[in-house]
Specification:
heterodimer; A: alpha+beta; Ubiquitin-like (UB roll); DNA polymerase, domain 1; five-stranded mixed beta sheet; about 35% helix; B: alpha+beta; Aldehyde Oxidoreductase, domain 4; seven-stranded mixed beta sheet; 18 helices
Chain lengths: ~170, ~725
């Protein structure tokens, strides 16, 4: 037997968010993770759900210049922050990390790659010549079941070359 | 060049485009000949491709993309025969229903094997029609026209006309029944690396996977499932759950039996995924778990060990008489492999809308026809009323061969008046999925005084997938590829058998399937015999491969062919590249393994070098892989599969394991079901055998030899692991 779902209006608080340099007002419970605000409310589905418990890195976004797992950040803690998602990393895929990923032909299924690229982009923003140890530490937070690690490693080297070329 | 007969059943003629009678009425005498007499938008001679007036080609990809690169390799095959610039080719999912039943099926590394000739013909048919169209336009013989990079050239006048300008002429022509295919020496695209066709979309976050799809009015559902397979729902209390803002409704549904064994569930429906996830934790559900609620993997392995001592329940292959050599220079060893989860990065999900008996579905499915046929049976819908929209998948590895989640979505949608997206959270994904069966192997071999293997026995014990999908009937049970009549080593007396053991959790096929399961014990044991006889493991294997001619593995005309010489070829390649004959560095050891991925017609081997740091602690210092898959369509795609396959297989060798107590899976996510991480990935070198053989599949071929090569290296270093994952035997790595 079918039931008609009520067109209920839930009373929820509103939050003003700055995502990819645009302002959004969202109505959500304060504990709703940024991940689901981005995906379900703002239709920014480039940020991926992988685990919800900080174990896979698929939901990595940039917040005030830091890499943040959006599944761990209640929307209530995200106001007055500058949030960048994969959709805002560049307008046309021209960010050095995206270009490097393109050159190395990294993706297989591609699902984890937005998170991988956001993690790499933040790392390079903080340090243009990261050591192998730092690359290992940072990138080991992000899982890839297809196993594209070999190419991610290669792509990060391409990106390092690119960002250091630009600075001189 | 060979002529190929076209099987017309494979093609769908778009009749509305080919009928130009109306348009003819608008023909004005005296118009330049180049203006087409037909009104049309594009030319689509078959279900696999269309060409528009701008000359842009769309290839409709029959196989489902989940990372294996079919959305690039398959269009390359069409573009090759069509003679177009690959930049003008766009890849789209072939809409469900435009192909023969079963043609969308994606699995077993069969996409290239299945589609290679079909797509070459499809491209060649289109090209032939475009050439005919140009010949008509120029009023010359077809033999005076040739295709060249998206244009037809008049070889006498050297005039050129673009494909896009010919589409309406071509659309009006009859479809030829015979076409000439290119000679491989003229290939311009096949064999050259192309980047993934949707690369830019993936890199900018625009690629839409099933979980990213939105349907008008859609709501979200998350499900609490019965912890035990085939249990039933007694009652539930949703009072607390319904108080979560965003929650619209809580519904329940019954489980199903064969083939998917969907578990009984209670679904929270909400305006967003988070509210549904949060509310699910507040449900209070009472289940009747049934009788089989106390099984454990610990007990299962005891059962395996006990039954391994008895005769196999099913005889699989028997050649000569192994009993003649009983007790003579006998070597025995047992090996064990655990249940495994697919753990795709995109958790399974599905959208369903059911209204007035009409059903529309959205999501990723590897076997959409079987899914629809089962939904018809399990949900009481009419097949003609089901519309399926297939989507890109964030990993599959066999997970989406199963469609339990699609049945669940329909069962929920049947109870509400809005489209619903079912989302499995990660805990659901690790706890309730169809697991690669646990298995156990008892091997025995006898040698003669010349150190030749004269008898080989392999008893496989497993918890077969078929017991879940078809019911516990032993006759369909054996999952014995690699250990049946296709057993590749030249041993005069061989006996293999299978013993099924039922176990009450969902099982399914995982990437590399039973070939991976059986290659581990076979390639470990052959090494173990060589070690015991103090023989060089490379020469020992080659002596049983190199001189054995290709042989058929069955009696029917279509039976698969096993090629020991190709199995030897990849082995020699990895041994040569890793420097098998050279002196090893101190504390460095190399292990080898080779195999045939028989039904994908591909062969691969690995050589893995380790450095021993402590008796059971090691570092992987080098990995060399070789593959022989015949003609390579997209070399970059092949490399990516082989590199990634290493990571997938190392997860299995080192740490992948699902354990069960009280018929419940213990692991609940990536903290407890660990996958290989970035800092654990060794460098890998991949070598490809140059071959003119028919192209084989490559998605699964890079996995089976990884674990045995690693274990053989550890054995050379002094300790042989016989259980996967090897950390259960106390091994650790850096």
């Amino acid at each position: 037997m079918k039931v008609s779902l009520p067109l209920k209006k839930f009373l929820m608080p509103t939050f003003l968010l700055t995502v990819n340099n645009k302002q959004y007002t969202v109505e959500a419970e304060a504990d709703m993770p940024l991940l689901w605000v981005l995906r379900d409310l703002l239709d920014l589905t480039g940020t991926k759900y992988g685990c919800g418990v900080a174990s896979c890195g698929a939901c990595t976004v940039m917040m005030d210049g830091n890499a943040v797992l959006s599944c761990q950040r209640p929307v209530g803690t995200c106001v007055n922050k500058k949030i960048i998602t994969i959709e805002g990393l560049s307008e046309d895929g021209s960010h050095p990390v995206q270009k490097a990923w393109q050159k190395a032909g990294v993706p297989q299924c591609g699902y984890c790659q937005p998170g991988q690229m956001m993690a790499a982009a933040v790392m390079l923003e903080k340090n243009k010549k990261p050591s192998d140890e730092m690359i290992n530490t940072v990138m080991s937070n992000n899982l890839c079941r297809c196993g594209t690690y070999h190419r991610i490693k290669q792509a990060i080297q391409f990106a390092i070359e690119e960002v250091n070329k630009k600075s001189f | 060049m060979k002529k190929v007969k076209i099987d017309r059943r494979h093609f769908i003629k778009i009749t509305s485009l080919a009928s130009g009678s109306l348009a003819i009425g608008f023909m004005v005498p005296g118009l330049p000949a180049l203006i087409s007499p037909f009104d049309c938008e594009f030319f689509q001679p078959n279900a696999y491709l269309k060409i528009d007036k701008q000359g842009k080609v769309t290839v409709f990809v029959a196989k489902q993309e989940s990372g294996q690169g079919v959305d690039t390799a398959l269009p390359m095959i069409v573009a090759e025969e069509l003679d177009v610039d690959f930049k003008d080719v766009k890849s789209e999912i072939a809409p469900f229903g435009t192909l023969k039943e079963g043609e969308h099926d994606t699995g077993g590394s069969q996409s290239i094997v299945d589609m290679y000739t079909k797509l070459r013909k499809a491209g060649a048919v289109a090209k032939a029609m475009l050439i005919s169209a140009a010949a008509k336009v120029w009023n010359v013989k077809e033999s005076s026209c040739a295709a060249d990079n998206g244009e037809v050239v008049n070889t006498i006048s050297m005039k050129r006309i673009k494909y896009g300008e010919l589409v309406c002429e071509a659309a009006a022509l009859p479809i030829p029944t015979e076409v000439v295919l290119k000679s491989p020496k003229d290939f311009k695209l096949i064999g050259k690396s192309e980047k993934r066709s949707n690369l830019k979309d993936i890199l900018t976050g625009k690629a839409k996977y099933g979980l990213d799809l939105k349907v008008d009015g859609m709501v979200y559902a998350v499900v609490e499932r019965c912890p035990v397979m085939d249990g039933t729902l007694v009652s539930f209390d949703d009072a607390a759950a319904k108080k979560v803002p965003g929650v619209l409704k809580v519904v329940s549904y019954k489980g199903t039996g064969i083939p998917m064994h969907v578990r009984a569930g209670v679904a929270v429906i909400a305006t967003n995924t988070w509210a549904a996830m949060k509310a699910k934790k507040l449900l209070n559900v009472t289940w009747d778990e049934g009788q089989k609620n106390n099984e454990s993997t610990q007990e299962l392995y005891k059962t395996f060990e006990l039954k391994a001592k008895t005769k196999p329940q099913i005889d699989v292959y028997n050649k000569g008489d192994v009993t003649k050599f009983a007790g003579q220079n006998e070597v025995t060893a047992n090996y064990a492999e655990p249940f495994l989860a697919h753990a795709t990065m995109e958790p399974v999900n599905f959208i369903a809308a059911v209204n007035a008996g009409k059903c529309e579905l959205w999501g990723g499915l590897q076997l959409p026809d079987w899914a629809v046929n089962t939904i018809v049976k399990d949900c009481g819908l009419k097949k003609e009323n089901i519309k399926v929209n297939l989507s890109l998948m964030g990993g599959a590895f066999g997970r989406r061969l199963h469609f339990d989640f699609a049945i669940e979505a329909v069962k929920i949608a049947q109870q509400i008046d809005k489209p619903v997206q079912l989302v499995w959270d990660r805990t659901d994904d690790i706890r309730f999925e169809p697991y690669r069966p646990a298995n156990y192997h008892a091997l025995k071999a006898n040698t003669d005084s010349m150190s030749n293997v004269v008898a080989w026995q392999h008893h496989v014990l497993g918890t077969p997938v078929s017991f879940m999908t078809d019911g516990p009937d032993p006759k369909n049970a054996p999952e014995m590829d690699g250990a049946d009549r296709g057993f590749v080593y030249d041993v005069p007396n061989v006996y293999t058998g299978y013993t099924p053991v039922d176990f009450n959790i969902n099982r399914g096929w995982l990437r590399s399937v039973d070939i991976c399961v059986n290659t581990f014990p076979v390639e470990s044991f052959i090494d173990e015999i060589a070690q015991k006889l103090k023989k060089d493991p490379l020469q020992f294997r080659l002596s049983m491969l190199e001189n054995r001619p290709d042989f058929k593995t069955g009696d029917s005309p279509g039976s698969m062919v096993q090629s020991p010489s190709r199995v030897a070829g990849v082995l020699k390649m990895v041994a040569d590249k890793i420097g098998w004959k050279e002196k090893r560095k101190p504390n460095h050891y190399i292990g080898l393994a080779t195999h045939s991925f028989i039904f994908a017609k591909s062969y691969a081997a690995h050589a893995i070098e380790i450095e021993l740091i402590a008796p059971k602690k090691f570092r992987i210092t080098r990995v060399v892989a070789a593959i022989d898959c015949g003609v390579v369509v997209n070399p970059d795609g092949l490399l990516n599969q082989m590199e990634g396959g290493l990571a997938f297989a190392l997860t299995q060798a080192l740490k992948g394991e699902i354990t069960v107590t009280n018929s419940r899976v213990v692991e609940d996510g990536f903290f407890s079901y660990e996958l290989l991480r970035f800092d654990e990935m060794p460098a890998v070198e991949v070598y490809v055998i140059d071959s003119k053989e028919k192209p084989g599949g490559v998605g699964e071929v890079g996995l089976p030899t990884v674990a045995p090569a690693l274990c053989n290296a550890l054995a050379a270093a002094g300790n042989r692991p016989r259980t996967l994952p090897i950390r259960n035997e106390g091994f650790s790595w850096v």
